[in-house]
From TrEMBL:
Subcellular location: Membrane
InterPro entries, per the entry: MFS, MFS_trans_sf, SLC43A_AATransporter
Organism: Chlorella vulgaris
UniProt name for this protein: Uncharacterized protein
PANTHER family xref list: PROTEIN FMP42 (PTHR20772)
Membrane topology: Multi-pass membrane protein
Predominant cellular place of this UniProt entry's protein: membrane
Domain of life: Eukaryota
GO molecular function: transmembrane transporter activity
Keyword entries, A-Z: Membrane, Transmembrane, Transmembrane helix, Transport
Length: 542
């Protein structure tokens, strides 16, 4: 029997090849179809507020908020301040949305929450389309509704990652690729706007028509999305009559013995062979646990009688393949069992809150001031266009962030994100315009990694029982802190952005300590878990 260790947050030893589920006649696995529909929805409307540089450019071309501006075409502080206020309100509600929508998601489920997100997005687009600073001015409610609709739609999709328990980091990164890449939609709408004369009528038509495109997801979600969030251990099936069914893996026991059934057998057998309550996983698997970051093969020397004892204890059918045995830090396994209050006040939750609040604020500040910062470095619009386009290529980072989350763990992932954001802030302070290509690439990657890791780590670390409430509580601080976007943007208009960018890099440096502690915690005191459920095995390894 060969035990092969694969490095990562949860250390995995594999026994043979895992079998696929065998479904009843007339049922087929539909999780990839649901994932595709949800990711397409994310790309089309999940993060429209991230297209603010393009949307604000259209508003500026139409002469909104220019009543007090000089006619010479220089940067107008009053106009930019009004646009900065709209951005601050939109991103505030996007960040603050989980405070309300997290509880709503837990109460009414993903189907109705997703439909609510679509309706809010449509309302925001319609209000942006019909508003004018010199006429019907509904820009403020438009920004609020659009930001709230974006995060509401996004939250409603994220539970689908539970259908992919062994690749949740990868799936999370796919969702976030659509969410953050959605900003390019506004750039594409700007191209249509300019090609049709850049008139107020064409702008209104474009925004109303795109609201109609978003509305297509109302019947799609009503048809395909379940009323209750998926949990790890569930499967999503489609019947021949094109209706969908959510079932538990355990319901297919006659056709398929869960991987974890064999895990229970292997772990309990090791427990019996190696003796009593003093048994430790480290004693049975020394090479595996001494080299957590290197692939290791350990051949267990068992006598023929031992093999007979194991086979007799297992009572496995002949068609059952051996599956993975996964180890995870006891600290994190126990954390998932705690109440909401205990999880909220844990060191992990507080540390994650501070880490993401600061990183999100700095990344969003640059997003809201990209056009102005580039203009002050001499940009004539080409670099701003590049900034609008590059976000769509965040999908190229999916394999990397998926590998970091699923194989390298929390500490390494958080340290990588923080390092990229520090580098991006330093590059933003460089006055050279050509360097800003590297700035935009670094910022795009760090922002994509941050959003991918946020929901993936929260879901894995705390479980989905209190997921909505924890995300809601975390985003209270995130959104309140985000209100500093407006005064900081005005400060940048007056004194420049260089020292603001440098100060942001300095503020992030202490967060490397939290990343180090997460790395240490996840590699200490390992216990075997069920990979399909994330829970500790029934017996306890001391």
């Amino acid at each position: 029997m060969a035990i092969v260790h694969k490095p990562g947050r949860a250390r995995e030893v594999t026994f043979g090849v895992r079998m696929d589920l065998l479904f009843p006649a007339g049922h087929h696995d539909a999780k990839l179809v649901l994932l595709s529909v949800s990711v397409l929805g994310e790309f089309l409307q999940g993060g429209l507020m991230f297209g603010w540089p393009s949307l604000s450019g259209m508003l500026k071309q139409l002469g909104n908020f220019n009543a007090d501006c000089p006619p010479d075409g220089i940067t107008c502080e009053s106009q930019e301040s009004s646009l900065a206020l709209l951005w601050t309100l939109g991103i505030f509600t996007l960040n603050c949305g989980p405070v309300l929508m997290g509880f709503i998601l837990d109460y009414i489920g993903p189907k109705l929450t997703g439909i609510l997100g679509v309706v809010l997005n449509m309302a925001g687009l319609v209000l942006f389309g019909v508003s004018s600073s010199s006429g019907v001015n509904a820009f403020i409610p438009a920004a609020i509704l659009l930001g709230l609709g974006n995060i509401t739609f996004h939250l409603a999709q994220f539970h689908i990652s539970a259908l992919f328990p062994r690749s949740r980091g990868l799936v999370a990164s796919i969702f976030v690729a659509g969410f953050t890449g959605c900003g390019i939609i506004m750039y594409l709408l700007t191209l249509v706007f300019e090609s049709t004369g850049a008139s107020r009528a064409s702008y209104r038509t474009i925004m109303l028509c795109y609201a109609g495109i978003c509305s297509l997801w109302i019947p799609l979600l009503a048809w395909m999305m379940p009323s209750h969030s998926f949990r790890v251990g569930m499967v999503y099936l489609v019947r021949r009559d094109w209706t969908f069914d959510v079932r538990m893996r355990s319901e297919f026991a006659r056709q398929y013995r869960r991987t974890t059934s064999l895990q229970d057998f292997v772990a309990s057998s090791l427990h019996q062979l190696h003796g009593g309550p003093g048994f430790r996983a480290e004693a049975a698997l020394p090479d595996v646990l001494e080299s957590p970051r290197q692939s290791t093969t350990l051949h267990m020397q068992l006598a023929d009688t031992d093999h007979e004892r194991l086979d007799a204890a297992a009572q496995l059918p002949q068609d059952i393949a051996w599956g993975p045995l996964v180890f995870e830090a006891r600290r994190f396994v126990e954390l998932r069992k705690k109440t909401f209050s205990e999880q909220f006040w844990s060191t992990e939750a507080l540390g994650m809150g501070v880490f993401y609040t600061l990183n999100v604020f700095i990344m969003q500040f640059y997003l809201g001031t990209t056009r102005l910062q580039l203009e002050k470095k001499g940009d004539d619009g080409q670099y701003t266009d590049f900034a609008n386009i590059i976000v769509a290529f965040a999908c190229l980072g999916i394999p990397t962030i998926g590998w970091l989350l699923d194989k390298k763990g929390y500490g390494t992932t958080l340290g990588t994100i923080n390092g990229l954001n520090v580098l991006s802030s330093i590059l933003q302070a460089v006055p050279n315009l050509q360097i800003q290509v590297l700035t935009l690439l670094t910022w795009m990657i760090s922002r994509f990694f941050m959003y991918s890791s946020y929901f993936a780590i929260f879901g894995n670390l705390f479980g989905f029982t209190n997921f909505g409430k924890l995300v809601a509580a975390d985003n209270i601080f995130n959104s309140l802190f985000g209100l500093l976007q407006f005064p900081l943007a005005n400060l940048g208009l007056r004194v420049g952005y260089m020292w603001i960018n440098i100060s942001q890099a300095v503020v992030l440096l202490p967060l490397f300590l939290f990343a180090y502690h997460m790395y240490h915690w996840e590699n200490s005191d390992l216990v075997p878990i069920r990979p399909m459920e994330g829970e500790e095995l029934e017996f306890r390894v001391y």
